[in-house]
Design a protein that fits this description.
The protein is an alpha/beta fold.
Length: 159
Amino acid sequence: MVILRFLLDTNIISEPFKLKPSPSVVAKLQENGGDSAIASVTWHELLYGFHRIPPSRRKQQLETYLFETIQPHLLILPYDKKAAEWFASERARLAALGQPPSYVDGQIAAIAQVNNLILLTLPRLRYAKTVGFLFQRDSDEFTLRKHLDRMPYGCKSSN
């Protein structure tokens, strides 16, 4: 039985397919792929990008990556009732502070939160408004670690 530790953000799982992928991100992805999952929201983003590409050799390569590498080997976690409840509360709280979070990023953060996973993402400020997560620098990527004293519903974490 595999114990999941990480939720991979779209920019992490798509890194190997970039024209110039970061070797350190690809190495970390290979190292941690066995105990990682992606969010259904991330799967949507990957498929949306795929469907927007015109027919080409690159699209065929992406199709192979998505359907032969990602889909059969990574668990895709749903945005479910528990995630929706956590994000609704967090979104309302942040909106009251005048800091509404990105909807998609909030969904991904909620999936990580309710599944007690560490969200791996590249250096961006996209999750900065989703309280409950902190950035921790690790070479070319950031690990979003749960910030225990700010968790709604009294959630606990081992991280």
